Predict the structure.
Amino acid sequence: MDTEKIGRYIAQKRKEKGYTQKDLASLFSITDRAVSKWERGLSLPDASIMIDLSKTLGISVNELLSGEDLESAEEYNKKAEEIIIEMKKREEDANEILLRSESILTGSTVALFVLIILTSALLIENEILKIVIIILSLIPLLIAVFYALRIEQKAGYYECPHCHNRYIPSYSAVLKAMHMGRTRYLKCPECNKKGWHKKVTKQRDE
């Protein structure tokens, strides 16, 4: 997805409609700086305003995300398919990054916890103080673990070993499930069978 091309297209259509950046920004309760970032190709409009923005500029969402006018139905459908594939690829890449960040967060927090325990065991003689330090060090560890679990739940999908349905379970289901790494013992919402559901980043295989 060529953000610079999209930005130039938004600027062109804005000017054709007679809007300044400030005018356009005020219609969507955002800053003119946000509009400027779109037009310089530094960011894309939020999905929440994309449909209304397209209507305001007199174009379709497909044309907005293509960065050009689409004349024929064939061209329109082709671009729609390309946009869907690109957005799917972006989602998969984002899921991969989130899962890597989860591993880094969990690993670094556990390493810090172990370091604190070892340091207190070696350097602090007061047993009460050791216990207090251990209890206090558990707080950030638990926060990190619960946050990492939230990342795992949201990033990607779990695949049922029976019907191969891929889905996003609730946080409570993931929290309560037995697990081996990122493979969890869950109940599939499609076939209602329980099993070890593997974490995957794609909604379906090509």
